[in-house]
Amino acid sequence: MKVRITGNSEYGNHIKALICGDAGQGKTLISSTFANPVYASAESGLMSIADRSVPYVDIKNSSELQQMKAALDQSPATLEKIFGTQIETVVIDTIDEIQRMLVRERLESEKKDKLSLPDFGWLSGQLEGIIRGFRNLPMNVVFTCHLKETRDDDLGRIVYKPQLQGSIADQISGMVDLALLLTTRTINEIVDGSNRRTIKRFIQTFPDAQHPWVKDRSGKLPQEFPVNFVDDFDRMHKIIY
Predict the structure, then answer these.
(1) How far apart are CA 30 and CA 233, in angstroms?
(2) Distance (Å, whole) CA 197 – CA 174
(3) What is the pTM of this model?
(4) N or C: which end of the chain has fewer CB within 10 A?
(5) What is the C-alpha to C-alpha distance for residues 211 and 190, in angstroms, rounded to an integer?
(6) Could you tell me the end-to-end alpha-carbon distance of the chain, in angstroms, rounded to an integer?
(7) CA angle, corner 176, sides to 9 and 119, nearest 5?
(8) How far apart are CA 55 and CA 38, in angstroms?
């Protein structure tokens, strides 16, 4: 039996995060503020970071995703040779598109039009393995994901969850340190002496009735974290560590 002491030296100062939000909220953009990121791009939607010179790999199938995971599980010096720059973060953009990719591959291999009950068990196992595999890399890891609206019949209300099929939609937040909701709000501000309505973005770090999966395992972030798409990661990292 080996006894360990909790601390930054053991954990590595890394952040493992799930960032959810509707299309166009800025999930990809805020991910680019993480330290030296590389993108596993399954959606081919990197226009928002076109001016940031960020390396990425187009992911068209599960084989390419596993190849990228294996490439990332190398020493920092080897990573720099592979990607041409220092890598400290991998962004899976988006994990729901990765799941759709797995569904397409399953249907094609099984020559089916739709998934059966055993297929859903296979799908959950495959996606859980992918999430855990990337999460365990010795670097920052970000999974971006869209939201889906569902009705909780037991509670009699609408809830919004990660847009994933099966039980993994409820499990994924338990696999990361931060499960965050990226939101937009219109507020009134006084600018040059006049009242103006401006759009502000925030990260919600606490669960509520409609988003029970949101969490901050560190317990240190404010309940609403202001987003500027410039130094968001640095500010979060400083607060947590």
Answers:
(1) 8
(2) 37
(3) 0.91
(4) N
(5) 32
(6) 28
(7) 140
(8) 5
